[in-house]
TrEMBL record:
Belongs to the SCC3 family. The lineage of its organism: Eukaryota, Metazoa, Chordata, Craniata, Vertebrata. It comes from the Eukaryota. One of its GO terms (cellular component) is chromatin. GO terms for biological process: cell division; chromosome segregation; sister chromatid cohesion. Keywords: Cell cycle, Cell division, Chromosome, Chromosome partition, Coiled coil, Nucleus. This is Cohesin subunit SA. Residues 317-401 form the SCD domain. Component of cohesin complex, a complex required for the cohesion of sister chromatids after DNA replication. The cohesin complex apparently forms a large proteinaceous ring within which sister chromatids can be trapped. At anaphase, the complex is cleaved and dissociates from chromatin, allowing sister chromatids to segregate.
């Protein structure tokens, strides 16, 4: 709570008297009345405190003695007085009147009024203490100055600051907790944010109202400046922050006074010159003298104000601009920039600018931001001539701020350089411009937009580009301007060599260069034949850029930001923006539906450019279109048909299929025109393919000529591309593909490309069937028919997995993955009311074939060919990247089959084995698969890891028994141990979440080692005992309670004598035991291995009650699962009993219990409410 200092004594003693300005909070329970005075209420605006000590003081003087208090009428007729702090807190309405009342009170009793003002600043600092003032009249100045301290009073336990604010020695006392408490300037909420603005306004209003009266009395401002200077140098942050803000705002107000005085001096000087220019007979000497005296008086006042400003600057800003608090540094820089802008004749010079340059290196972004924003204002005011030296000295720093880690600082730095470039043409070199322009490709969109604005203003708005050719028409002039701007953009894009996507450049320029990018008429005029001179014709590369630029602008207008890598998500646009976007889309639709047929006809032979043009219909605004453009639509459809008949490029066909889908949509106004055309086109291709297949497969095998094969392949590519975009099931494409695959399976001879396209076509048909299956009520017959089709397709793909061509094998694998995952999804989303579901499970042979395919085609090391030259080395590198991308796709498809439960989870064991060996290539995919399977079933996932490790271990043992230790197919023991360590890291830090899985891993590992083992001698050990060293990698993830539980389970199999055996053959068991017990007791595992066989580990912490269940004499221990929490009460009671019993045991008995047949009974830092687990 912020208390209010009050004046305890109005009579100011003139010689070494004491006046206390104390708060109610500083009085420690003096009376019940003061306790009640400490309560206050804040609702909306700050209300006046009731019954406060200040408010109830009755004054014998008139209202001029209010001393800065505003009087308000209450309902009962009483008069309530509030302090300056309360008035400022309440808002602006009473502030003007309060300042006027304070000035009136100051003229009556300046000491008392000034003390009220001093208490106001102390209270605004959040001080809950007391202010004491005594007059400074001692002539022993050195003795007094030596007492100016800030320290802790050990007797009272209060902090105090004693300083000189002439003519007083002020002592401020406050509690110790003020350093850690909040104060008004940093408190959150709208109320305190308004308080800050009101506080700053109060200082400005105070100086403004006093500028013609008491400000020059040599008393008010001197005392105030001394107060603020001393408090701004305090060790207490609240005083330092508040008084620094007040001091710089005071200087800003004095700047306004100095400006007014400068205006008055100029006006008086002009008046003096006019009077002096009169004839001697008409000249009034008295008037001249009066004007001259006024000028001298105004100049003296201005000089006095400047001295005050200099005192504040040297006393406050020079000390605080390097304050440890970034808010204080930011305040200093912000106000310094204001002074430079308002009073440039004094402050705008290198002696002040150097502080701004230095603070641009500040560690806090807010301080750097204030400097950059202030410099923008200075350069905009055409003050660069006074800043030449500063610009030369700090230009590199301003350019480097564009790379600032804070995005806002970087944005404003680019704007600063933009302003500098506009105000001074040669301040930035071409290399500087080039470096700044590169930000149009950065991932942060606001920074890219700012750089785009800079690029547009610098390159595209160059006056030299807009010089028209003499005698040219308006249309030609516009075309020449567009051409010049586009060529400038092409030059920048080709020179940057940073990004190949024009889409990001368009996104950066969209807000600033929208007039150019939305000028589709001008852009298309550059591509169409024109009657102007041929010198303006575009080259092939320039045409490609214009087409890409036009396509990017169409996409930006239709969809808008954000792009991939720019922005976190889809932007929610307002109704106004939506309407504007709709209007722009309608405009581009109306333009391109007329121009696009001509463009398609001109570039009919260029597949790459046609692909860009064919994307434009996908952005048409069909809602705003009517049937008046039907002739243009028919021309567009005719050109589309001609394009797809002529070309077989996969990208072009896919884009054309999407465009047909957009034109044939049910809500499209051109559906009646586009749909029949589309149907005729598909029917024509289907009939053509059927005819060719009848001729080629007449004898049961494929016997087509080379030309016929090309026709079949091109037609099949077109049908496949269109079938992926739309459902073409009614044209029986599946049956056509079946004929080709059956001929290949039975007789062979089918070209590889035809086989791949047949697989893709059939796969898309099956996927469409699965997508539409279940839309209505399905009968059992339809379900059986669909299942037979699915089974037949999977069998054909299974046969193709052993095809001689690798591309065919990979395509068959991808088709199988897609179909099986789609079928699984269809089962999960099946509605029981839709009838009989489609049930299909891949047979074991198919599952094994999929696994074998992955092992053969994914986990293979590519052969390293020695490159003969740099070109071949580059091509080899690109080929390896493509090969890696292909293998990653295959592995991801197989992992999706496991994640979607198409394949059993145990099928992932072979994939997990490769985690370490192929970590750089597939580590992310395998790790994500492991996490997904753990989310599905954590126990089964852990069992898969156990299976993986045990299979690798057994394979290694078999190779070692055969004497073959150099096989590259077998992982070494260290690699298996490293794999176990990597598996353990995937369990994360949440031990409670994974305790069941880890317990199962240890249980299966112990059983695997001691299965069927019967000890015949001391040196005789289990054959798989070295597996325990691998198993120990999972011990670090166990809870301490579970470590003891697992150790007891180990005793059940090994026995105490075996565990105590120190023979070399038993070292893995000792190591495993150390991993369970050593870390649990805070001892290093190696100490257990090297310790004496007869020495048992000592317990270091037995103070806590164990929650471990006692083990019976036979060692048969049962572990409870978390589902048995209902038995917690009994467990707690038994734990308490065991705690009492354990307290009665001696140290030796408790130590020996570690190796007894009852298992571990130590109580090492285990919570009582911990639940045991079932191993």
């Amino acid at each position: 709570m912020i208390a209010e200092p009050t004046l305890l004594s109005r009579s100011v003693q003139k010689e070494n008297s004491v006046v206390d300005v104390s708060s109610c909070a500083s009085v420690h329970h003096v009376s019940s009345e003061r306790n009640e005075n400490r309560q206050k209420t804040v609702r909306g605006k700050r209300k006046a405190r009731e019954c406060s000590e200040n408010a109830k003081r009755k004054r014998s003087k008139s209202s001029n003695g209010n001393l800065g208090r505003a009087e308000t009428e209450l309902k009962n007729g009483d008069v309530e007085a509030v302090t300056l702090f309360e008035v400022v807190s309440m808002g602006r309405s009473a502030m003007q009147a309060v300042v006027d009342d304070w000035i009136d009170a100051y003229t009556v009793d300046r000491d008392t009024a000034l003390l009220d003002l001093i208490s106001f600043f102390i209270q605004c600092s959040g001080c809950k203490g007391m202010v004491t003032a005594e007059m400074f009249q001692s002539k022993q100045g050195t003795d007094v100055m030596s007492k100016m301290v800030e320290d802790l009073d050990e007797d009272t336990g209060l902090q105090f600051k004693k300083f000189l604010a002439f003519p007083w020695i002020l002592t401020v006392t406050w509690p110790l907790d003020m350093d850690s408490g909040e104060y008004p300037l940093i408190m959150s909420g709208l109320y305190w944010k308004r308080f800050r603005s009101h506080f700053c306004e109060f200082v400005s209003v105070l100086v403004a109202q006093c500028q013609n009266s008491v400000i020059f009395d040599g008393y008010l401002l001197n005392t105030l400046i001394s107060l603020l200077t001393e408090l701004s140098d305090s060790r207490v942050r609240a005083f330092r922050h508040t008084c620094t803000l007040a001091a710089v705002k005071l200087l800003s107000a004095l700047v306004n006074v100095a400006l007014n005085l400068s205006v008055s001096v100029d006006n008086s000087q002009r008046l003096y010159e006019v009077e002096l220019a009169k004839m001697a007979s008409k000249r009034a000497s008295q008037r001249l003298d009066r004007i001259q005296r006024k000028i001298s008086e105004l100049q003296d006042r201005k000089f006095e104000i400047e001295n005050m400003m200099d005192a504040i600057f040297k006393g406050v800003l020079l000390k605080r601009y390097r304050d440890v608090i970034p808010e204080i540094r930011a305040i200093c820089m912000e106000e310094l920039m204001v002074w430079m802008k308002l009073y440039s004749s004094v402050f705008l010079n290198d002696s002040y600018l150097k502080y701004v340059g230095w603070m641009m290196h500040d560690k806090q972004p807010d301080v750097r931001l204030k400097c950059v924003l202030g410099l923008q204002g200075l350069y905009q005011d055409q003050s660069s001539s006074k800043m030449d030296l500063f610009t030369i000295r700090f230009k590199e720093r301003m350019i480097s701020l564009t790379l600032d880690k804070d995005h806002e600082v970087a944005i404003q730095a680019v704007r600063l350089l933009m302003v500098m470039s506009q105000s001074c043409e040669d301040v930035l070199s071409p290399d500087d411009h080039k470096n700044i322009f590169q930000f149009v490709y950065c991932s942060h969109r606001p920074l890219a937009i700012t750089a785009g604005e800079f690029l547009y203003n610098r390159l595209l708005c160059n006056p030299e580009l807009s010089r028209p050719r003499e005698g040219a028409s308006d249309q030609d002039r516009h075309r020449e301007l567009v051409l010049a701007r586009v060529r400038s953009l092409i030059h920048f894009h080709t020179e940057s060599e940073l990004h190949q996507h024009v889409l990001y450049l368009v996104d950066s320029l969209w807000d600033s260069a929208g007039s150019l990018l939305k000028d589709w008429t001008g852009l298309t005029s550059l591509l169409l034949p024109h009657t102007s001179c041929q010198e303006q014709a575009l080259s092939n590369a320039e045409e490609a850029f214009v087409i890409e630029l036009m396509l990017a602008s169409v996409r930006q207008a239709a969809e808008g930001p954000p792009l991939s890598g720019r922005g976190a998500g889809k932007k929610v646009i307002s109704t106004k923006e939506k309407k504007l976007q709709t209007d722009v889309c309608a405009t581009l639709t109306e333009h391109f539906i007329k121009v696009l047929p001509e463009l398609l006809s001109k570039y009919s032979e260029d597949a790459e450019k046609l692909t860009s043009f064919l994307r434009i219909p996908q952005f048409f605004q069909t809602d705003s279109c009517d049937l008046e453009n039907s002739q243009y639509v028919q021309a567009l459809l005719a050109e589309l048909e001609a394009v797809v008949d002529r070309h077989t490029d996969a990208g072009l066909l896919e884009t054309a299929a999407r465009s047909y889908q957009s034109l044939c949509a049910q809500d499209s106004p051109w559906h009646s025109l586009a749909r029949p055309t589309f149907d005729r086109l598909i029917q024509h291709w289907t009939n053509t393919l059927g005819t060719w297949l009848e001729e080629s497969l007449s004898s049961g095998c494929f016997t087509a000529s080379e030309d016929n094969t090309l026709e079949i392949l091109s037609t099949l590519k077109k049908l496949t591309a269109f079938n992926i975009a739309q459902d073409l099931s009614k044209w029986s494409l599946y049956e056509l593909g079946t004929k080709l695959l059956e001929a290949e399976i039975k007789h062979g001879g089918l070209p590889m490309e035809v086989t791949v396209e047949a697989l893709r076509c059939m796969c898309s048909c099956v996927l469409w069937k699965l997508n539409t299956f279940g839309e209505g009520v399905t009968s059992r017959e339809s379900s059986l028919q669909q299942r037979n089709q699915l089974r037949a397709f999977c069998e054909k793909c299974h046969r193709c997995l052993s095809h001689a061509e690798q591309l065919v094998r990979e395509q068959a694998f991808m088709c199988l993955s897609d179909v099986l995952i789609a079928h699984n999804y269809q089962l999960q989303m099946w509605d029981s009311t839709a009838g009989t579901p489609l049930l299909y499970t891949p047979d074991p042979k198919l599952q094994k074939a999929l696994l074998s395919f992955v092992l053969e085609h994914v986990f293979t090391s590519p052969e390293l060919d020695t490159p003969s030259s740099k070109v071949s080395e580059s091509e080899c590198g690109e080929g390896r990247l493509e090969d890696l991308h292909r293998r990653r796709n295959l592995l991801a498809s197989y992992c999706k089959l496991i994640v979607h439960s198409v394949l059993e989870m145990s099928m992932a064991a072979e994939v997990f084995k490769q985690y370490v060996k192929y970590y750089n290539d597939f580590g992310d995919i395998i790790k994500e698969t492991l996490n997904r399977t753990r989310q599905m079933d954590k126990i089964e996932s852990a069992r898969t890891l156990v299976q993986c490790l045990q299979q690798l271990y057994l394979r290694l043992k078999q190779e070692q028994d055969r004497g073959n230790t150099c096989s590259s197919r077998v992982q070494t023991y260290s690699s298996i141990k490293e794999l176990a360590r990597r598996f353990s890291l995937t369990f994360g830090w949440d031990q409670i979440k994974s305790r069941e899985s880890l317990a199962m891993i240890h249980r299966d590992g112990i059983e695997f080692v001691f299965k069927g083992f019967v000890q015949q001698s001391e040196k005789h050990s289990p054959p798989h005992i070295s597996y325990l060293t691998i198993l120990s990698e999972f011990s670090g993830k166990l809870l301490k309670l579970d470590k003891k539980t697992i150790y007891s389970y180990l005793q059940k199999f090994a026995g105490e004598q075996v565990i105590s055996n120190r023979e070399e053959s038993w070292m893995p068991l000792i190591y495993y035991r150390a991993s369970l017990m050593g870390t649990a007791e805070g001892e290093d595992a190696t100490s257990f291995i090297s310790s004496d066989t007869n020495k048992q580990p000592s317990l270091t912490n037995r103070s806590r009650s164990p929650s471990i269940k006692q083990v019976n004499s036979e060692g048969d221990q049962r572990f409870l699962s978390p589902s048995t929490e209902s038995k917690g009460n009994k467990g707690l009671k038994s734990c308490e009993d065991s705690k009492v019993h354990a307290a009665a045991l001696s140290r030796e008995q408790r130590s020996s219990s570690l190796v007894s047949d009852k298992g571990p009974r130590s109580s090492d830092e285990v919570d009582v409410d911990t639940v045991d687990i079932d191993v």
